[in-house]
Write a structure and sequence with these properties.
The complex is a heterodimer.
Chain A (H helix, E strand, L loop, with lengths): L1 H14 L6 E6 L4 E5 H5 L3 E6 L8 E6 L1 H7 L7 E6 L4 E5 L1 H5 L3 E3 L1 E2 L2 E2 L9 E3 L21 E6 L1
Parallel strand pairs in A: 1-11
Antiparallel strand pairs in A: 1-2, 3-4, 4-8, 5-6, 5-11, 7-10, 8-9
Chain B lengths: L1 H35 L7 H23 L5 H19 L1 H10 L4 H17 L9 H89 L1
Helix pairs in contact in B: 1-6, 2-3, 2-6, 3-5, 5-6
Classes of the chains: A alpha+beta, B mainly alpha.
Chain lengths: 153, 221
C-alpha cells in the first residue's frame, strides 16, 4: 500500500516539471540541504484531513512529516526552528510540536500539487483537531504557507 | 410551621435557579472571551495589510522588470505571491469575518479577475521569450492594472479598522453587561444562602423544641 502511494507521489512529481526546481532549504547542525519536490517525496508521505482557519471545510493534505525532516538534519525536539516563507514572513516554532504532533509539510491539497498562488508549493499543516489548545499558543502562526526555508535558531 | 417549610423550599429552589443562571452567564462570558482572543493571522486587517504590502512589492518589481533590473522569474514570483493573498481573503475565517464586518469585498473579486485576465501573458514568461519592446509593453500593462488597486486596498483596510473598532466597542459593552449581571447574581446568591441558612437554623431549633416537648409529654405520661 505504501509503495503504491509512493509511486503515485513520484508520478505526480514527474508530471510536474515546473516543480522540479529546489523549493525548500533546511539548515540543521547535521545537514544543510536544498530539496526539490522529488527529494521531498522520498520521505514517507503522510495524509491528514483537517480544518484550519484558512480553508472552508475539512481538507486532505499530504506530505512528509516535519519531524522526519528535522531528524534528518539533526534538529531535536528541544530546539527552536525558524520557518520562513517565500515572501520573507518568518516565525519561530518550538521543534517539540513537530515531535508531539503529526505536523506535515503539505505538498498536496486534495490530491493536487499547490501552486504558489494557492499557498504552495509547501504549506505547514497541523492536525488542528489533535492539538491541546492553550490560551497562549497561537498555532495559526505556524501554518506557514509558501514555506521556503527551515533553520535551527 | 407550614409557611416556614414553604419558605425553606422556596429559597432552595431560588438557590438552584441562581446556580443554573450563573453557569449560563459564565458560559456566555467564556464564549465572548474566546471570540475576543483569536486575532492573529486570520485577522482580516493583517491579511489586508499583507495584500497591500504584496501589491506594493509587485509594483516595485514591475518597475524594476521594465528597466531590466528584475528578471522574469522574480516578476512571476511576486505576481504569484500577490495573487495568493486574494485566495487567503476569499476563503475560511478571514472571508467569514469580512462578511461579518459588512465589508464590501467586490474589489477582491475585481482584482482576482485582473490576475486571471493577465494569466495568458504570464504563463511561460521567461527572459528569452521577450524582446525589449514586449518587456516594456507588458510592464506598462501590469503597472496600469495594479496601481489603481492600491487606493482601494487602503480604503478596505480603513473600513476593516472602523468595523473592528465598532465590534470591539460592542464586545466591551456586552462584557460589562455580563459582568454587572454576574455581580448582581453573586450578591443575590449570598443573600439567598444567608436566608436559607437562617431558615434552616430556625427550623432545626423548632424541631429540637418540639422533640423536647414530646419527650417531656412522654415522661409526664
Amino acid at each position: 500500500m505504501y509503495s503504491i502511494a509512493r509511486l503515485f507521489f513520484l508520478f505526480l512529481a514527474l508530471a510536474l516539471p515546473a516543480q522540479a526546481a529546489e523549493i525548500l532549504t533546511v539548515r540543521g547542525p547535521a545537514l544543510e540541504k536544498n530539496y526539490d519536490m522529488e527529494a521531498l517525496l522520498e520521505f514517507e508521505q503522510v495524509t491528514i484531513q483537517t480544518k484550519n482557519d484558512y480553508v472552508e471545510l475539512p481538507t486532505e493534505f499530504s506530505g512528509p512529516l516535519l519531524r522526519d525532516v528535522l531528524e534528518a538534519h539533526g534538529i531535536g525536539s528541544g530546539e527552536t526552528v525558524v520557518l520562513r516563507a517565500l515572501n520573507d514572513y518568518a516565525t519561530e516554532m518550538p521543534a517539540r510540536l513537530a515531535y508531539e504532533y503529526d505536523v506535515i509539510l503539505a505538498v498536496l491539497r486534495g490530491g493536487r500539487a499547490m501552486p504558489i498562488r494557492d499557498k504552495g508549493p509547501i504549506w505547514v499543516i497541523f492536525p488542528m483537531e489533535d492539538l491541546r489548545q492553550t490560551p497562549d499558543t497561537t498555532y495559526n502562526n505556524y501554518l506557514v504557507w509558501q514555506l521556503a526555508e527551515i533553520e535551527r535558531k | 410551621m407550614g409557611n416556614e417549610t414553604f419558605l425553606l423550599r422556596g429559597t432552595r429552589i431560588l438557590l438552584m435557579g441562581g446556580v443554573v443562571l450563573l453557569a449560563l452567564l459564565l458560559f456566555n462570558l467564556q464564549s465572548r472571551l474566546e471570540r475576543l482572543g483569536t486575532p492573529e493571522r486570520s485577522n482580516p486587517l493583517w491579511i489586508t495589510s499583507q495584500l497591500q504590502f504584496e501589491l506594493l512589492r509587485l509594483e516595485r518589481d514591475i518597475l524594476a522588470f521594465r528597466v531590466g533590473r528584475a528578471g522574469a522569474d522574480e516578476l512571476l514570483l511576486r505576481y504569484e505571491i500577490a495573487w495568493s493573498r486574494i485566495g487567503v481573503m476569499k476563503e475560511g475565517e478571514t472571508a467569514w469575518r469580512l462578511v461579518n464586518y459588512g465589508i464590501d469585498v467586490s474589489m477582491i473579486a475585481d482584482l482576482r479577475r485582473e490576475f486571471e485576465a493577465l494569466e495568458p501573458e504570464m504563463v511561460g514568461l521567461t527572459e528569452a521569450s521577450l524582446t525589449g519592446a514586449e518587456r516594456e509593453t507588458l510592464a506598462e500593462r501590469l503597472y496600469e492594472t495594479f496601481v489603481p488597486y492600491s487606493a482601494s486596498v487602503r480604503k478596505m483596510s480603513l473600513d476593516i479598522l472602523a468595523a473592528r473598532s465598532r465590534q470591539e466597542r460592542l464586545d466591551q459593552a456586552a462584557l460589562v453587561q455580563i459582568s454587572n449581571r454576574l455581580n448582581l447574581m453573586a450578591v443575590l446568591m449570598v443573600v439567598l444562602s444567608v436566608l436559607h441558612l437562617m431558615l434552616m437554623l430556625r427550623d432545626l431549633s423548632r424541631s429540637r423544641e418540639l422533640s423536647a416537648q414530646l419527650a417531656a409529654a412522654i415522661t409526664d405520661a
